[in-house]
Amino acid sequence: MTQTATTLIDRRDVDFLLHDVLALDALFGRERHAEHDRQTVAAMLDTAEKLAADHFLPHAAKLDAQEPTFDGEDVHIIPEVKAALDAYSAAGFMSAHADYDWGGMQLPHTVSMACSAFFSAANISTAGYPFLTRGAANVIAKFGTDEQKQAYLPNMLSGRWFGTMALTEPGAGSGLADLKTTAVPGDDGIYKVTGNKIFISAGEHGLSENIVHLVLARIKGAPAGVKGISLFIVPKILADGTRNDVRLAGLIHKMGYRGTTSTMLNFGEAGGATGYLVGEAHKGLTYMFHMMNEARVGVGLGAAVLGYAGYRTALDYARTRLQGRPPAAKDPNLPPVPIVEHADVKRMLLAAKSYAEGALALCLYGARLVDDSETAETPEARDRAFQLLDLLTPMIKSWPSQWALAANDLAIQVHGGYGYTREYPVERLYRDNRLNPIHEGTFGIQALDLLGRKVLADRGRALALLSEEMMATVRAAPPALAQEAAELTSAIGMVSETVAVLGRAAAGNQLEQALANAAVFLEMLGHVVVAWMWLRQATAAEAAIHAGSGTGSGPRAAFLDGKIRACRYFFRWELPRIGAQAILLQRLDQTCAEMPVESFG
Question: Is 73 an active-site residue?
């Protein structure tokens, strides 16, 4: 069974989120987006949907089965990948978000991310190459010199050159303070970079004329730790057309996400790779975090839409697969019914729907915050949006990575034995999504960032802003959603009580104890935030019904009713999880932290 365009992202859902929930029209009144309106947005979404279906989806299974290979000289990738990426760039998607001055469309980030959803759902591996390239280009656009911008942005935003970020090293992993790649300055201001990097996505291929590596390295004599890290542009091909001293040591063979090459790169085997300093020395991690945070939101989106595609594929299967009869049907001569009619299958599909659609709403809300942080009318509004985005980024990355993956797991279960075979796409979607809780900062790292840096170190200021936003939704909820509004209010209070307990512990020389169960806190707060996303969606659905656009028994009415019922499911089945989590956190339970290493056996 092949995946079809109808099992990707539901266009109705994207339109609903953009216009009914996120009030996209408000962006069109801002100077940066003044040339856009609903018609231009619809045209971009139409094009993305068609390109994803026609150029990305058809080779997704083939790319998984025939992953890239390295013959010692060159990397070989099936030709469909380059054809798809050429079509992607020709349609303007590589540069859609960028300034007009660089050939872009100044499309709102919210719309750009909505477009990306179609490509990632269709073929996450092929979509990985432009995802990394846009991120690298954005770093150069923000922190590079005018000369660097002129040299790299036109080529990267046109799709002629691709980009990467090279952070991880074999011995350091996520511990960037321990990286050993060095950069030695020359008299001409150009650096020679030497070191080894691992797990560099898209680090080598033949899909573009050049690959622009953004490399973290330590200038000789720099301070130890993260304060001594600088950022360098290290292109594969230099301006004079010669090959830089960057070599592929080998490809890494992954469980999923196979079509995006994962590489081990050696810099400086022949004396040092030519590198160009970005911004100021020793501030590289600050610059790279710009790309990393963008990547984390992108990872969340990728996780959300892979779960979404799994859910839609399972729903399509459940509607056509005939098996069994209702419990009350005792006559064996009665025909079997579609499995979607069985209560337990509905349970699984409703859970998957709530995870995937809730995760997509969260990611697009994050993109809307990016737009507000850059273009809101007042400095205060821009700052507020930035603080909210900064707080939510660990959740945007991690909650979809955990729970949209659960949607993929449920999709396999709905398919039964067929789901465990390679003849059906749901096992591939699960394997592709399993990477997302790991890369761009594991779940545990994101949890420490959220609780340690974003909540406790900030003394809850950003969390207070988030609570204000959630309570505004509670107050706007219609009478039909009064129970959900009350439950969200209670959940917000539970989070506040938990943070108060953890804050007192951290202030009283118990910081390690307060942070020991940070992952539980991330999951707890993530569930509250996604419950908020569902209340926003249900409120918008109720408004549409009362406005007359969802009356009757047609597809629109069923779609809106589905939103309200999924909201009800999330509040009744999922949100109650946080009660036990709050108890565990407030007890400062140290069961895991105090486990003696030798007691593992």
Answer: no
